[in-house]
Hints:
Number of helices: 13
Organism: Parafrankia soli
Pfam families: Aminotran_1_2
Family: Belongs to the class-I pyridoxal-phosphate-dependent aminotransferase family.
Number of domains: 2
GO molecular function, one term: pyridoxal phosphate binding
Shape: globular
Structural class: alpha/beta
CATH topology of the largest domain: Aspartate Aminotransferase, domain 2
Bound molecules: glutamine
Keywords: Aminotransferase, Pyridoxal phosphate, Transferase
Amino acid sequence: MTAGASGPAMRISGRAQTFTESVIRDMTRLALRHGAVNLAQGFPDFACPTELKEAAKAAIDADVNQYAITWGAADFRAAIAAKIGRTYPGWTVDPDTEICVTCGSTEAMIAAMLALVDPGEEVVFFEPFYENYGPDSILSGAVPRLVRLHGPDWSIDPAELRAACSDRTRAIVVNTPHNPTGKVFSADELALIAELCQRHDILVFTDEIYEHIHYLGPGGHIPPATVPGLEDRTVTVNALSKTYAVTGWRVGWTVAPAPYTEAIRKVHDFLTVGAAAPLQAAGVAAMGLPPEYYAGLAQEYRVRRDLLCGALENTGFALRPPDGAYYVMCDTTDLDPAGDDVAFARRLVSELGVAAVPGSSFYADPADGRHIVRFGFPKRLETLRAATDRLRLLERTRAAHP
Ligand code: GLN
């Protein structure tokens, strides 16, 4: 049936009009179209641990095919709580009342916002930000207040953070280790956040998906939930995705005090009902991996980081190697004096065959990211070498047009 003059007006909601599609995910589609090495969207191109695959296959063979409990299979929640307790002694989580298993950390974050923020309440984000947080706040009706992370070390100006927080603030969104900058929030910064949260009765929503991917050594990552004053006001968001190289499985969770968890569970139930049951069984195996797995993970990522950062610097990008996560923000001033990050990133994909994310997608004002592109390095060394070989062509371009 065709819609004629009297057909339905193709109207979409005001909410859906206020944000664009994800630039990160769009770059992946562009990379596929050009056969480019995808250093844009952050997902691994290497295998996940065998233990997870075996457990997932065993669960499917055992016909674990029906809904798990909507807020997560009991054994998976118990395993998450036990792993948290082993990793951060002193942090005790009740798996019966303080965990909600979700479809990835993406759902975890938006479910937390929908459950705990009322329309019109302010939510503080650090900028540059992971692009999901913008639409998350629009969908939950929150009013974003941005606080700048200042390069090159992406530090917080305490006065700016203080000025952004007030009795209108409902939550501060922390992401540590941080996407896209690689910043790892320090004890002092978290203490300041705790002070402000207590003064103004603010919650912390913390995305810790890169918890085990940092280059600071043991104790380098501090979960806000373990910071004095934040224990009872923190919603921690995490997932299997990055730590175990299974971004497509979509298994994540929230950890929060029981009353908050109860609300998150309700929202989650009506958003998605639940995460894939056999993959939650594999999550139990993931939580049981020994400490050496995490030490090895960080070490392997350090090698990838050093390879990519060194090659990018040789090519003419200016950068500060990240302390955590698996992205590096690069200044393109020498390579792209015009400062058009989107055109530059498109050229990288179509002419050189390497995808990166234009910096503007991490800023409210696109002009702030015009001299930046983000490369990700959750890749095999051969993939990174293929990318850096291609990027070397930029050196020649630069030599030809100094
Ligand atoms: N965190 C990933 C990135 O920044 C993307 C995750 C996703 O696309 N859901 O590239």
